[in-house]
Amino acid sequence: SQQGEEDPQALSIQEGENATMNCSYKTSINNLQWYRQNSGRGLVHLILIRSNEREKHSGRLRVTLDTSKKSSSLLITASRAADTASYFCATDDTDKLIFGTGTRLQVFP
Amino acid sequence: NAGVTQTPKFRVLKTGQSMTLLCAQDMNHEYMYWYRQDPGMGLRLIHYSVGEGTTAKGEVPDGYNVSRLKKQNFLLGLESAAPSQTSVYFCASIKGGPKGGYTFGSGTRLTVV
Asked: pLDDT (tens digit, 9 = 90+) per residue, A36-77?
């Protein structure tokens, strides 16, 4: 399978805490993207980081990329109950994206 | 502006029946994709299209066919449904390939009994 892997598979935290999710992938990339999926809904694009970038921020999201280790991490700071969702990384492969297996994040009020 | 619309949202099929899932986008996107999502498996690519009249196989194409006769529509067909095709199917589109974020539909939940 070409899929990347994410860990942890599931993460439970309290509101206000930070959440960190990791993604490992297998092939060389031009960019890596993170998506959120609320229960029963489609995926929503969160942030894209290019292969020549090491870190990117968007609001409470911070993404890092280490191409030498073929890994990325997504940090959500000061989490909220509304952040409860599954989070997926995706890497580009010619004309398509390959998605990881996802991390289920539960944020308790 | 509807984005990506998938129909139907739910369907139950008997083994051996056929059906077509429709994906429609109104954003003038060139690239369109069909993924399936199964528990613990993430999203796996079935077929995709890089423009009107073109299609290509993804990671799990067996048992499915697709057509892209019009730029705005991407159809996914199951000729003879099997229980292994029970899944949630997502369509996605983007203007110029995976250099930016995809827009996803809300999914079709298919059960084959």
From this structure: 999 989 999 999 999 999 999 999 999 999 999 999 999 999
Q: What is the per-residue pLDDT across B39-68, written as a single tens digit (0 to 9) for each?
A: 877 899 999 999 999 999 999 999 999 999
Q: How far apart are CA B100 and CA B24, in angstroms?
A: 19
Q: Which candidate, A98, A90, A93, A109, places its Cα nearest to that of A14?
A: A109
> Which residues does residue B24 pair with via DSSP β-bridges, in sequence order?
B5, B73
Phi, psi of A82 (to 5 degrees): -70, -10
**Cβ <8 Å between A42 and B40:** no
Asked whether B99 and A30 are in contact (CB, 8 A), the reply is: yes
Position B2 scores a pLDDT of 74
Q: Considering only alpha carbons, which residue of chain A is nearest residue B49?
A: A95
Considering only CB atoms, which chain A residues are within 8 Å of B106? 41-42
* Nearest in space to A105 (alpha carbons), one of A39, A32, A24, A59: A39
Residue A12 one-letter amino acid: S
